[in-house]
Design a protein that fits this description.
Domain MEKHLA: 13-153
Strand content: 25-35%
Order of helices and strands: HHEEHHHEEEE
Number of strands: 6
CATH topology: Beta-Lactamase
Radius of gyration: 14 Å
Organism: Paenibacillus tyrfis
Number of domains: 1
Helix content: 25-40%
CATH superfamily: PAS domain
Protein name: MEKHLA domain-containing protein
Low-confidence stretches: 5-9
Pfam family, one: MEKHLA
Largest sheet: 6 strands, antiparallel
Distance between the termini: 31 Å
CATH class: Alpha Beta
């Protein structure tokens, strides 16, 4: 299997930012289990937990999605990482999404999010118990937001 390489937000630095920001804010591990089973980047990409993130643009663009996220949204890496994150939700769900992201921006994270999302082909799915958190770099500067969840059902 070929893992994504190159591009914005890819590689060990971004994987570490996601994992360390999650741990610092929630007190939990994003990747539970033994650390000796592959590189951090590989473990995150192959995790069964859906993990995705976007950058800091005015209209944030997705900059990471692990294989579970790519499968769920029915996109390849190149398409996913060129997609404005607002397009992961249907238009009628975007107001709720904006409110959530503002809450996360102010509080650091939210661990109780539920909402409807839509794949590239138009397939709707209901996310349950998602955690959304702010990503910070090594110097504590804001670097975007990420989300993870393992529970969803198709609508």
């Amino acid at each position: 299997m070929i893992l994504p390489n190159g591009g914005v937000g890819v590689g060990p630095d971004h994987a570490e930012r996601l994992i360390h920001s999650y741990r610092r804010l929630t007190g939990n591990e994003l990747l539970p289990g033994p650390e000796s089973s592959g590189s951090l980047t590989e473990r995150l990409f192959l995790s069964p937990i859906v993990v995705l993130s976007h950058g800091t643009e005015d209209d944030p663009v997705l900059n990471y999605g692990n294989q579970a996220a790519l499968n769920l949204w029915e996109m390849d890496w190149e398409t996913f990482t060129r997609t404005p994150s607002r397009y992961t939700a249907e238009e009628m769900e975007r107001t709720q999404r904006v409110q959530l992201l503002k809450k996360v921006q102010e509080q650091g994270y939210a661990d109780d999010y539920t909402g409807i999302r839509i794949s590239r082909s138009g397939r709707r799915f209901y996310i349950k118990k998602a955690t959304v958190w702010n990503i910070t770099d090594e110097d504590g500067r804001y670097a975007g937001q990420a989300a993870c969840f393992s529970e969803f059902e198709y609508c």
